[in-house]
Amino acid sequence: xxxxxxxxxxxxxxxxxxxxxxxxxxxxxxxxxxxxxxxxxxxxxxxxxxxxxxxxxxxxxxxxxxxxxxxxxxxxxxxxxxxxxxxxxxxxxxxxxxxxxxxxxxxxxxxxxxxxxxxxxxxxxxxxxxxxxxxxxxxxxxxxxxxxxxxxxxxxxxxxxxxxxxxxxxxxxxxxxxxxxxxxxxxxxxxxxxxxxxxxxxxxxxxxxxxxxxxxxxxxxxxxxxxxxxxxxxxxxxxxxxxxxxxxxxxxxxxxxxxxxxxxxxxxxxxxxxxxxxxxxxxxxxxxxxxxxxxxxxxxxxxxxxxxxxxxxxxxxxxxxxxxxxxxxxxxxxxxxxxxxxxxxxxxxxxxxxxxxxxxxxxxxxxxxxxx
Length: 372
Prior knowledge:
Helices cover 34% and strands 23% of the residues. The protein is of the alpha/beta class. The protein has 2 domains: 16-191, 3-Layer(aba) Sandwich (Rossmann fold); 198-369, 3-Layer(aba) Sandwich (Aminopeptidase). The strands form 2 sheets. It has an 8-stranded mixed β-sheet with strand order 6-7-8-9-10-11-13-12, with helices on both faces. A 5-stranded parallel β-sheet has the order 2-3-1-4-5. A hairpin with a 7-residue loop joins strand 6 (197-199) and strand 7.
């Protein structure tokens, strides 16, 4: 007899935010109610909308005036501000988000709120067939909660919002019960590596997050890169441009090239640095080798094993052959990389000298990651 999977979340280890995204009538609320049985508090879009919908005596069909949505936006802002400082509970949020600026801003607000409270963030896009969607949206129980009962919402021309997140789950719920959908979501979460908030064994009071940077956060990495490059001017001949910036022409590629990935590092909800990795190396023909292009932890967060923790985590999340490139005149960096590579691989690390960009002082360390 097949045993039922234990999907109850361990709320003692981390706090969690699940964000259910789908069209009206997809079943977001009923799935959220099932997730509530595993320790989540439901904050569905109607909880935020209904004070205004009630005052408008919304019939589920009429158009909500712009001033109504503006008021709802203020309520949402207050709710998210509260959740940002409430660090104890797990929450499941729901929303219907399309590919437009307003809805993308709403998505960013939820993700930023999760980050501020140090939660692991799990976006879930719920998909459904038109036939089943029409059946569900007309259910009388929806009217009782001031929900849309308009079948035309099923045939909305705008696509659902595009979500880029390593924790994203896309789930077709056309043939799934709410209980089974919730079970799949929890199984998905439990199968993921803990790639958000983690505790540093050497510094148990440090709450470290290594999160894939969104396109909106490109400007943050660009600013951090200025600090990073400035620190490197003691070791390399970097000139600042006439506009007062060093700049990084290749930075936009980390959001357009699938072989490049940008990460931001946060410590106790404070921005602490960034990491840029790429598959394929500028000094080798091997297209499968992993390479750290840039790695920066701000001085405030150094000497606390945070850099080691971040590097080890990234290497674990991306199994395969890795290389680290560092100039031989950067004594501090050489000691750092040699030390943490040896701890990670449990083998002696020896850099190989290579010529690069007209200089012959590049040291290259290579090792393998077995993954999780």
